[in-house]
UniProtKB/TrEMBL annotation:
GO terms for biological process: fatty acid beta-oxidation. InterPro entries: ClpP/crotonase-like_dom_sf, Enoyl-CoA_hydra/iso, Enoyl-CoA_hydra_C. Belongs to the enoyl-CoA hydratase/isomerase family. It comes from Streptacidiphilus pinicola. The lineage of its organism: Bacteria, Bacillati, Actinomycetota, Actinomycetes, Kitasatosporales. Keywords: Lyase. GO terms for molecular function: enoyl-CoA hydratase activity. It is an enzyme of class 4 (lyase). Coiled coil: none annotated. Its EC number is 4.2.1.17. This is Enoyl-CoA hydratase.
Length: 278
């Protein structure tokens, strides 16, 4: 893992088996740019390949988590003609890259999460939020559509009518309301937010099989678009595969011996096809 500089758009810090990534444009409430995206995705790729990193936490510097796409970039896009926009170079990785991470990805939403910033939080597996965190889809108030798959993600988290409310009104939701509707999973006071998210991630890293967590993440994603019978059939097949692995033996042995498990790390990642969420 490369060393972070104070001027980097995303800071990286190891806390034991957990990698903490901090979006670092506080003067712009950590608004999203291509440079920030490239740095964030590079660090996710490095975390993916590092066997010592077993979980990742993402948060923001200062008062914001991520205020969405930088308004200067939005203004430039809004003023560009369709032909110019069509000629923009393709990104080397899909914006959904965080969904493809094999390891647990946890958001610590410390402040404003708007538009693309909210989408990035929803790309995480688990969300912690401060009570005063401000979450908003923002798109309708900027003349935009529901971007980056949020029209698929949001109804599955909060239900169709609540998703419509949040998308059509772009109203601000704070921590406790977000918790009540299932938009976030835990609400923690600001001074303990990051530590709580890291503690949760550390427990996953130290107590849970990396292979199991990878497989479970894929199962849940696929089950969102399949029937119950298909999910059961997949589980039956994967269970046979699991019994042939050392993880089951170690999980049972560590429980019977009343000790912490020593699960093997994930193997080096294979090149993933773009858009593959499994």
């Amino acid at each position: 893992m490369e060393t972070s500089l104070a001027t980097d758009t995303v800071l990286a810090e190891r806390r034991g088996p957990v990698l903490v990534l901090t979006l670092n444009r506080p003067e712009r409430l950590n608004a999203w740019t291509y440079a920030l995206e490239d740095r964030y995705f590079d660090l996710l790729d490095q975390a993916e390949a590092d066997p010592e990193v077993r979980a990742v936490v993402v948060t923001g510097t200062g008062r914001g988590f991520c205020a969405g796409a930088d308004l200067e970039d939005l203004e430039a896009a809004g003023n560009a003609d369709p032909e110019t926009l069509a000629k923009l170079p393709a990104r080397s990785r899909p914006r959904t890259r965080p969904l493809e991470l094999r390891k647990p990805l946890i958001a610590a939403v410390n402040g404003a999460a708007a538009g693309l910033g909210l989408v990035e939080a929803l790309y995480c597996d688990i969300r912690f939020a401060a009570p005063d965190a401000k979450l908003t889809t923002a798109f309708a108030r900027r003349g935009l559509i529901a971007e980056y798959g949020i029209a698929w993600l949001l109804p599955r988290l909060v239900g169709a009518s609540r998703a419509m409310d949040l998308l059509l009104s772009s109203r601000v939701v704070r921590g406790q309301e977000a918790l009540a509707m299932g938009l976030v999973d835990f609400v923690v006071e600001p001074d303990g937010l990051l530590d709580a998210a890291v503690a949760y991630a550390t427990e996953l890293a130290e107590q849970c099989s990396p292979w199991s967590m990878q497989m479970i993440k894929g199962q849940v994603r696929r089950a969102l678009d399949s029937g119950f019978a298909a999910s059961v059939a997949e589980a039956d097949a994967l269970m046979l595969e699991g019994f042939a692995r050392p993880d089951v033996r170690e999980g049972v042995a560590s429980y019977l011996e009343r000790r912490a498990p020593a699960f093997p790390p994930l193997p080096a990642p294979e090149p993933h096809p773009q858009g593959d969420l499994t």
